[in-house]
Write a sequence for this structure.
């Protein structure tokens, strides 16, 4: 079947089975490879994207469910990689291996959109579904606070 999807502000047509996860549509059909496959069951957050402004695990949404929703990947978060969260990530040396970072950044930026100045508890709650095997959680929290201050 053919689907017209709005990804990063552009309408794009893909041909896929209705039950194809958006993660694979984004990566394999549209070449947006920032969202990563981690677990495939929505528990790790490596595949997080924004769907109509909210964080969503792209491995848990099918292409048929996407419909006319607006999808934003890490590639579409900011044109030059200068979103306040991205800048704070660099300033606080959050990344180690980097595998989970796109999902972390997408969750953090959605949090700041809904709560511009979150508490530690709100950050911990919002980021709980994003796993970092390198254990950079304290730097993640500090970067989110810094990004909140930069807004």
């Amino acid at each position: 079947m053919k689907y017209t999807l709005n990804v990063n502000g552009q309408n794009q047509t893909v041909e896929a089975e209705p039950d194809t996860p958006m993660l694979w549509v984004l990566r394999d059909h549209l070449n947006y490879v920032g969202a990563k496959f981690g677990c495939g069951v929505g528990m790790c957050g490596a595949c997080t994207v924004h769907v109509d402004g909210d964080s969503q695990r792209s491995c848990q949404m099918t292409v048929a469910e996407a419909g006319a929703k607006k999808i934003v990947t890490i590639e579409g978060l900011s044109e030059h990689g200068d979103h306040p969260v991205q800048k704070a990530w660099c300033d606080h040396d959050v990344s180690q291996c980097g595998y989970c970072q796109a999902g972390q950044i997408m969750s953090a930026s959605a949090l700041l959109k809904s709560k511009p100045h979150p508490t530690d508890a709100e950050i911990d709650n919002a980021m709980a579904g994003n796993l970092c095997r390198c254990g950079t959680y304290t730097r993640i929290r500090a970067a989110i606070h810094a990004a909140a201050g930069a807004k």
In short: The first strand starts at residue 2 and ends at 7.
